[in-house]
Amino acid sequence: MLSKRWLSLGGWLLLVLLVVFALQRGLQLDSDMQFFLPPAASPQQQLVLDELQQGAAARLWLLAIRAESEATAAALSQRLAESLAGESAFVQVLNRPQPLPEEEQQAWFVYRYLLSELPEMDAASLHQSLQWRLEELASPLGPLLRQTLASDPTAQFQQWLQAWQGEAGPVRRHGVWFGDDGRALLLLRSRAAGMELDAQAANLTLIESHFAALPGSAGASLSIGGAAPLAVTSRDTIRSEAQWLSLLATLLVALILLWAWRSPRLWLLAALPLGSAVLGGLWVTQTLFGQVHGITLAFGITLLGVALDYPLHLFSQLRPGSRPSEALAVVWPRLRLGVLSTAAGYLAMIASGFPGLVQLGAFAASGLLVAALVTWLVLPAALPRIWQGRESQRAALPVPPAWRMRVRIALLLGLAGLSLLVLLTSPRPIWQSELAALSPIPEPLRQQETALRQALGLAELGQMLAIRGDSAEVVLQRSEDLLPQLQAWQQAGLIQDVELATALLPSERRQRQRQQALPDPLALQAALDEAQQGLPFRQGVFADFVEALRHSHELAPLQPAMLETLLPDSLLAARLAPLLFERDGQWWALLRLHGLQDGQALADWVATNSDGDLHYLDLARDTSAMMLTFQRAALSWLGGGALLIGLLLWWGLAGLRQALPVLLPVLSALLVTLALLHLMGQLLSVFHLVALLLVLGIGLDYSLFFQHGGNRQQRRRTGHALRLCAISSMAVFVILALSSLPVLQAIGLTVSVGILTSFLFAWLLTPAGVDPPNKA
Question: What's the rounded mean pLDDT across residues 673-686?
Fold first, then answer.
């Protein structure tokens, strides 16, 4: 019959194999950054988030080719554009102004008198128009104009095509766009949203491989910019640096533990709780949510760092000739209470309601419970029945100051109060509200992206007016009603230009107004006959023009819903998609403002004149406000977690009097850590708050074991474990604090400072008259 020991080991191994099998078959890793963006509290905020993730700017790729000559760069540009145009990953590939295909021109040509402003059609005005057409016929464009002259002598469709082409854009040399620095320029629009990082990473590889395959590309260079490639670079940079820093930290911790125990067996067993915790957290998260976000995995493993302390406590109580179960009996009551309290703190994230934090809380809490169970059930079974290893050399910790406990408590309260005062009265901001400040992208790459945008004449799409309505017609009409005000702002220099859907697709109301303004066919024919006098046009040549106006009287106005029916996958529909769309039963029209000089003045005007459906959006401002709200809410659930921990300690230690000495060092360390980070010039972000959760767990571990160390010999061994825990944890997070990446630096610096203050404060409150835990 199998012993309890082998049942424990066999059961654990079977569960590990089953979980690994389940994860191998069903684990879905997600990289959609929307999951960890602040949740929207209103339709306007949701619109801001959508613009950041899948708006027009988020899908743009900006390319620049430098070669030995401009002719070579132009040839490479043309070949690359032709090569990428065949890839379904991109809906648009431009290296020059994009003309409408012939098929699409024919489709919209029919609606020319409804889509653009009508010219005067009296005899004098028509005579002037015909004279201009004669002059144009003599120009290089003459052959093209001759095709539509008879049916469109007022060049009505050309007027609409000018709105389609928009601004002139970069200069053209050798037939393609060029920047002032001699680089050929291309503009790509991806099919995938900007935050779909796996798809965008594939796009990056696709572009680079297509360029490398071009004849003559060996002596040329390709620069790539845009929100999507920068996001991919950001993710890859974090992943790369995290990997080598983690490897370095793992090697350092391994050396520390080998030096402390002189036992490869204990070193290998110490990894079981943490490894099992990661597998358990992954399985629980995958089961509950159907996928695991990459950030959940990265931050979750960081939060599970406290699980590395559990085997250290157990192993440090081993002594020659003793059973592992005896060592477990010494540490388990405190370890169990610490695990339950820390897991409760992590579970507070679930109550936040933020999808990313809910998943992170579930991962960390479940992983922590798994680590505790492995320490309780598996590690003793994996050790020899009778421990014959030798005890390592254990230097004593200094004795805490021989002050009365009230004095030591007063010192901690004073430090905590001073820290709180620093945070509340500091003239400097406390919170980091700029997303760009958290970016790991090197400054040269950011400057390159800015230079590419300027070269292509792309304004920062950060400011816009948003109009909400029950239908497309409502928002189009509201857009047209704003045109006089927009023109006044342009004349006053408040804005340089505005991009809006009605420039290409007017409202049904406006189209019907133009229909009503069209002249009667008989009156038009009479005006044409008079206008042709003295001009070399034969009689009847403009019969198609008269027929087109007659047909325009009867034409149903062109509406957004008709575009796909008339011409599937049209460029016009693609151009309008980011400017006019339906979301959650509401229609939105975006008016993108270029060259805005005074955002506050525009915001004030909207606040005064809006009826609730007109909004001014500043992506940088609105995102910062959402980040601040998110971070303050995160601070609230951190406080809620601390309160829940306090209640569990009150219950677990059978009274408030016993719980306070455990809680006071932890809470004081959190406040002092926050104040020190602020004095170091750190602006607090959600990464600091996640790191503080780990500090909370580690500090609770220190405080519980310092306060309840057992007998004299047990306290000596406990002190050894605590010192080893602090040294190994500090080694890991000091390395992270040296990172150049803001995210890793924030976590490393916060946890390093937190570990140091937690350890010192817990040691300071070692009960008076009792040896510190490792004093012989």
Answer: 89
549 in a structural domain: no
Residue 592 lies in a domain: no
pLDDT digits (tens, 9 = 90+) for 5-28: 778 888 888 998 999 999 888 888
pLDDT at 111 over 90: yes
pLDDT of residue 665: 93
Residue 581 dihedral angles phi and psi, to the nearest 5°: -160, 160
Cβ proximity of 97 and 121 under 8 Å: no
Pull the structure tokens for residue 201. 């990473």
Name the 3-class secondary structure at 221: strand
- pLDDT given for residue 776 in this prediction: 34
Sign of the C-alpha dihedral computed for residues 35, 694, 336 and 18 taken in this order: positive
Number of domains in the chain: 1
Q: Domain of 362?
A: 1-30+263-390
| Count of Cβ atoms closer than 10 Å to residue 543 Cβ | 13
Listed in sequence order, the residues at least 6 apart from 551 whose beta carbon sits closer than 8 Å to its beta carbon are 110
What percentage of the chain carries pLDDT values higher than 90?
22
Rounded-to-integer distance, Cα 314 and Cα 333, Å: 12
Tokens of 63: 């390319």
Position 674 in a domain: no
Distances (CA, A) of 531 to 112, 497, 536, 776: 22, 36, 11, 114
In this predicted structure, the answer to whether residue 539 has a pLDDT above a threshold of 80 is yes
The token pair that represents 268 in the structure block: 């290998």
CATH number at residue 386: 1.20.1640.10
